[in-house]
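Blinded run. Sample ID left blank on purpose so nobody reads anything into the name before looking at the predicted structure. Input follows.
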Amino acid sequence: MSCFDVFNGDADGICSLLQLRQVMPTEAQLVTGVKRDIALLDRVNAASGDQVTVLDISLDKNREPLKRLLAAGADVFYADHHYAGDIPTAANLNALINTAPEVCTSLLVNGYLKGERAEWAVVGCYGDNLDASAEKLAATLPAGANLTQWRELGVLINYNGYGADVADLHFTPEALFQRLLPHAHPDACLTDDPGLFETLQSAYGNDMALAASAPRLVENDVLAVIRLPDSPWARRVSGVYGNHLANEAPHRAHAVLTDISDGYLVSVRAPLNNRQGADEVCRQFETGGGRAAAAGINLLPLEEVDRLIDALTRQYA
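Blinded prediction complete.
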């Protein structure tokens, strides 16, 4: 029997798998990539009796390879909070899907494991910019949780997942997961491996300082659209900078456009006061998808920028 762990390379995907593999250790082939690399099941060839765990990638974007794996007889556990569409019915599929805007995959796995690694679920929530959900879960834990540093750790793990390819990242998602895995508690990671935290913290600070001076294409009470250059630092902050802006102006929607070949990489954040509709807007474009509160477009042609701005303005006006 072969096992495959298929997971998003962001904080939510990594923290979801951390919880599972700390509680249920398994030798598995890791299948992951940068945050936007979500068509991951195409890479899995599993047969009858094999185990496939899928975390934090859209079922809708992986529907056909999922059907192939199910037809081959593989047992699939699928946990996710992105738009799924119709979920296949199969005896060998255990689907844990919840697209509510205050839910992330780390929370779903935390429920599945009955809170055995809830501290890492809190970190995953913070990384997914679900601060209220993180604090609600943290309130169930023993007093003394270092939430300020847990939040920063979640943001830094999430920051590491953004890029056009793994060459843009400071750590590959596989390497980062394996480095975090021995630490049953976030505080153990911060104490026993301070170099990891300090490396990401320094890089994040440098990249965010560059983003602060980026030009605004639109800035009003409804929407802000920021343009970043074609540079590794810009691709690394394309998502976390959107989260930062959303936290600063919770009444407003935000879109971060990063220059890439033939167009833009787009990160959209719904207003924190109205966490819905981001996925609906992005799915209007060929390479768009995501979830209600946060979504993106992998390649927005230059000539479609005005169409995106119009769609966002209509959604949130």
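Unblinding after everyone has recorded impressions. Residues 162 and 236 are 5 Å apart (CA to CA).
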